[in-house]
Amino acid sequence: MTRHIYTQFFSLQLIGIILGLILVILHLIAFSKRESVMDFLKRLPRNKGLGIVILAIDCIWSFWLIGEVDLGEFQKWENPIRFGLPIGFICFVFWVDEFLAVRAVGIFLLLLACPLLDVAFLQEPITRLLIPILCYVWIFLSLFWIGMPYLMRDHISWATKTNGRWMGLCFGGIVYGVVMIICAFAFWGVDKG
């Protein structure tokens, strides 16, 4: 269980505000700087430099997490896993040239979903489901992007195909973020535990 690891640092309200602000800001940037963001996203799947940076963040986060999580009967494997993480990172950098950034983003979203789901777990207001819904979309997409990374390229092509589709997705992200911020302030309150 990782719940105690993250809930000691974050409350549902804090996560809602931060996540909502990030959604609003990123989608406003995508809306206002449409062409440059579209170009960046189209280049993202084959951006090896960015892939290495994100994969390094994934490796450091995983290395820290292994030391914090109770692995149960697999606790004896803690040191071999910690030893294997940097080796896996190096192997990924040298031998996984194709779509390294896609795989790194997928791993990052899987890691990011854990604290968000932990903070929202069994919280009282039903509006807290805004966080798990977003997390499960990330998890679903991440599993496909890691296993079939060309799908991210296809998803980006679909999203950027028409201006109307792009604007609709930007508007949807802004609205979702605003609703999350409103719920965080109005319903989620300060964590009691």
Q: Mean of the pLDDT scores?
A: 88
The number of domains: 1
Proportion of strand residues: under 5%
User: Level of helix content?
Assistant: over 70%
- What general outline do the C-alpha atoms trace? flat
What would you note in describing this structure?
With 193 residues, the chain is mainly alpha-helical. The protein has one domain (3-188). Helices cover 78% and strands 0% of the residues. The longest helix is centred in the C-terminal third of the chain and has 26 residues, at 163-188. The radius of gyration is 18 Å and the shape is flat.
Task: Identify the notable features of this structure and list them briefly.
0% strand, 193 residues, 78% helix, mainly alpha
How are the SSEs ordered, and which strands pair?
Elements: H1 3-7, H2 12-32, H3 34-43, H4 48-68, H5 78-95, H6 100-120, H7 130-147, H8 150-159, H9 163-188
Helix pairs in contact: 2-3, 2-9, 4-5, 4-6, 6-7
